[in-house]
Design brief:
2 domains, 383 residues, elongated, eight-stranded antiparallel beta sheet
């Protein structure tokens, strides 16, 4: 059978389609899987809010903000902004919505801090806050974990300040009849609500559900794994066919070999070896099978340079087999590839003298090892 451009394209169709599908769906699947896993992770943790570049998400766990359009299990986006910019509800402003740790530390509780606070009425002329550091104060996340503090999501109805300039926030759920019982020190504010459309909240809610995890993560990943397995099985089958061709069990131009793209996918040093061992009458066809595809229009230009190299090697082989191997030895850059080529040259010599492929492989390995050992011993004695 003869190879041509049309068949070359058809031979690669199945593998190409699998590869294309994998490439196209891989990154979206990874992104969706990460998003779903992250949202589910957030929904399972009530007191440990993770932030990435100041952005975080929290799950609403009560109906205290339903009057504002937030339902239970809604997941919303927060941004860690300066507490100096937070404003309370007033006649001309709806008030910022914040997520915060509903917690009052021992110092504030002991000093009955709320009675010593002053409500801010002029935000334009108030000094910037300086959160007071004091001995024994723990990190906010540490407090939340140790004290099992929950994160609330309420609207600011008043902003107050103490003598040190530290701000405290009076909050209330829009559906609640009364304000929250404690004033929230500014360092316990997790973040300010960023407008999160209803459709995005619905997506977050779906991602966090068991059904969403199965549909968005489990099924796509399963399909991707199956495609990768099919692709791997095809490549394994092609390698087994290639080995049959190298061993002389089937011809390089047989239907099985052409279907498996033998020659096209073959490693360079195996190509050099195979061209050497095929009979003289088959060398023209073997050359086309090994390097002829490089002439096709759909082959990248950088690969077409290999055709020039192969054509030169073909001309050199007509003059001298040893020079042919020397030429290819200069072509390879890695020592491992050069060593492989040397062993294959020995193997080809045994095959050409009538040994079976298996016996030639064993004999070449043995002789190549002996030559390497002898060279190493000679170098040792030299020094």
């Amino acid at each position: 059978m003869q190879r041509d451009k049309t068949k070359f394209k058809k031979q690669r169709t199945f593998y190409s389609i699998l590869g294309l599908i994998s490439d196209v769906v891989l990154f979206p699947i990874i992104i969706i899987a990460l998003l779903s896993s992250f949202v589910m992770f957030v929904n399972q943790r009530e007191n440990d809010v993770k932030s990435i570049f100041g952005v975080s998400i929290v799950c609403i766990r009560s109906g205290s903000m339903q009057a504002a359009g937030f339902n239970i299990r809604d997941t919303v986006i927060l941004y860690k902004s300066s507490t100096d910019d937070l404003r309370p509800k007033s006649e001309d402003y709806e008030g910022d919505i914040i997520a915060f740790y509903y917690y009052q530390d021992s110092r504030d509780a002991q000093s009955d801090v709320r009675n010593s606070l002053t409500s801010i009425t002029d935000f334009d002329n108030i000094k910037e806050s300086t959160v007071e550091e004091y001995e024994g104060r723990r990190d906010v996340s540490e407090v939340a974990k140790l004290e099992n503090v929950k994160v609330y999501f309420h609207r600011i109805i008043d902003v107050m300040i103490d003598d040190s300039g530290t701000r405290f926030f009076i909050t209330q759920g829009d559906s609640n009849a009364s304000q929250d019982a404690i004033a929230i020190r500014e360092d316990y504010v997790v973040g300010t609500y960023v407008y999160t459309p209803t459709w995005l909240r619905a997506i977050f809610r779906f991602c966090a559900s068991s059904v969403g995890m199965i549909i968005l993560v489990v099924l796509p990943l399963t399909a991707l794994i199956m495609m990768q397995m099919l692709s791997l099985l095809e490549q394994i089958s092609a390698l087994m066919t290639e080995k049959k061709v190298l061993a002389g069990i089937i011809r390089f131009d047989s239907e099985e070999a052409i279907k498996a793209n033998v020659g096209v996918e073959m490693r360079d040093y195996d190509k050099v070896y195979f061209y050497d061992v095929v009979p003289v009458e088959d060398k023209l066809g073997a050359f086309e099978a090994l390097w002829g595809y490089l002439k096709y229009p759909n082959v990248p230009k950088r690969k077409k340079k290999a055709l020039v190299t192969a054509l030169r090697a073909k001309g050199i082989y007509a003059i001298s087999r040893d020079r042919y191997y020397e030429y290819w030895n200069d072509f390879f850059r890695l020592k491992a590839s050069k060593d492989k080529l040397k062993r294959l040259k020995i193997q080809a010599r045994f095959v050409k003298t009538g040994k079976s492929y298996e016996d030639a492989v064993k004999a070449a390995k043995t002789l190549f090892k002996e030559e390497k050992d002898a060279l190493r011993d000679r170098d040792k004695t030299r020094y």
